Structures are given as C-alpha cells and as structure tokens.
Amino acid sequence: MEHRIDRIKKLLHAQSYKLTPQREATVRVLLEREEDHLSAEDVYLLVKEKAPEIGLATVYRTLELLSELKIVDKINFGDGVSRYDLRKEGAAHFHHHLVCMECGSVEEIEEDLLEDVEKIVQNDWGFKVKDHRLTFHGVCQKCQLDAAQKVQTS
C-alpha cells in the first residue's frame, strides 16, 4: 500500500498538488477497499472513522481531483449513484464491469476486451481513442442458479 501511496503522491506533485493528510486518508480508504465500488458518501463514512475532522465537501473535492488526474475513475452503474474506482497501476485503460440486475453485485474484468474495436474506430473514423468503459448489465451466475432452483422446487 505504501508503494501505491508514494506513486499517487508523485502523480499529485507532478500536477502541483500535495498529498494532504485529508487526501491521504481518502486514498487509503480507496486502497483498503479497492475491490468495492464506493460512493462518495461511503468513502466519507470510512474516512471519518480514521480522521473525524474531515468534512464531506473535502472528500468530494478530493475524489473529483483524483478523478481529474485519472488516479480514480468515476463510474455509474445506472442506479444514479456515482462510485469511485482506483485505476490499476500501469493500466492503459479502465477495466470493465459485469453488473447483476438482480442482486446488484459488480464483478470486474481486467482483460481489455476492446483492442480490436479501438483499432477499427481509429482506422475507419480517424478517432484517437484515449480510454473506454464497458459495463455489461445482466444476471450473475448465482442469481441464475437461484432462479433455476426456485423453478425446480415449484
């Protein structure tokens, strides 16, 4: 974790920002809960446990700054809530998500599934792709199994 915090600190310094204690507390929460897709309010509640003096507005500003600097990605899974996801170190692109419409679970796909599509877009439309996001909405395996079991017991 300290290595990633140091890298984030360097990214901030390169853009003339400092890793203030409030920003560091926010980054630590994001790193500790990296597998989760936390809303600003979720982050705030977790940061508040570590640093009670931090206000919600500070957390919002920190998340927006980290988003602008592409340290985190601001994502929305169609439920009207923005969530924040740390960008993987060295990742050229944002990762993809599978969102279950039944239980709300979110799984990540680290593999870049759109390399060929990017090449087509670049070659056929002359559009230089800088990043992409792909979210699949459907039903996860667990919910499919649960539904199948309900049918069998009926």
Automatic annotation (TrEMBL):
Iron keyword on record: yes
Keywords on record: DNA-binding, Iron, Metal-binding, Repressor, Transcription, Transcription regulation, Zinc
Keyword Ribonucleoprotein set for record: no
Binding site for Fe cation: 115, 132
Annotated residues for binding of Zn(2+): 100, 103, 140, 143
UniProt feature coiled coil, ranges: none
Assigned protein family: Belongs to the Fur family.
Protein's recorded name: Fur family transcriptional regulator, ferric uptake regulator
Source species of the chain: Sediminibacillus albus
